[in-house]
Amino acid sequence: MASNEEVPTLYDWAGGVEAFERLTEVFYAKVKKDDLIGPLFEHMDPGHPKYVAMWLSEVFGGPKRYTEERGGYPHMLSQHLGKGISEPQRRRWVNLLMDAADEVDLPGDPEFRAAFAGYIEWGTRLAVHNSQPGATPPTKAPVPRWGWGVAPPYQP
Ligand code: HEM
User: Fold this and answer.
1) Across the chain, what does the average pLDDT equal?
2) Fewest CB atoms less than 10 Å from the CB: which of 49, 81, 145, 155?
3) What is the architecture of the domain spanning 7-130?
4) For the chain, what are the domain ranges?
């Protein structure tokens, strides 16, 4: 069995920042055309796909660029506050992201996809919660760092 030092980060396993940038580019092209969530992103910053790629890269063990260059967790939180995201909108966001993950060929192995889906499920549910009127989420926190959980990558 591999020792801890030999277990790559999810970021490296995915293919690094280029992989996440391909993912978010395809994903937000779908989002913009979507009837249910497109309107939420009507005034989206043109840099948005790249910023979310930076966020995901940091979460999955890559460089801490979102924290250093983009305001970290407080900035991400501020972007969701008051948006009143509904459960159907959350689910559409997840579905489109998973479609994009297949289209850009993110690794399809069960261990990677389970860890990836685990973070996305967690993060989107928090986004819904934090975006409701009157929500009082913590205003300061580190960007989360997500790992493989109970199933490290299969490396024969
Ligand atoms: C794991 C789940 C999620 C992550 C990691 C995430 C990440 C982010 C980040 C990092 C930003 C700020 C980008 C910047 O620096 O400018 C942002 C903004 C935003 N997010 Fe999310 N988000 C998630 C879920 C959602 C969901 C479920 C929705 C709605 C269906 C949503 C809607 C938005 C909107 C509307 C903005 C502002 C876009 C703009 O006008 O520029 N997010 N998100």
Assistant:
1) 96
2) 155
3) Orthogonal Bundle (1.10)
4) 7-130
Catalogue the long-range contacts made by 113-120 (C-beta closer than 8 Å, 24 or more residues apart).
Answer: 114/149, 114/151, 115/10, 115/146, 115/147, 115/148, 115/149, 115/151, 116/10, 116/14, 116/60, 118/146, 118/149, 119/59, 119/60, 119/144, 119/146, 120/94
pLDDT of the residue at 6: 86
Q: What is the pTM of this model?
A: 0.96
Residue 97 has pLDDT above 80, yes or no: yes
Q: Mean pLDDT throughout 94-106?
A: 99
93 lines ligand 1 (CB under 6 A): yes
Is the shortest distance between the CB of 22 and ligand 1 below 6 Å? Answer: no
For residue 119, which amino acid is it?
A: Y
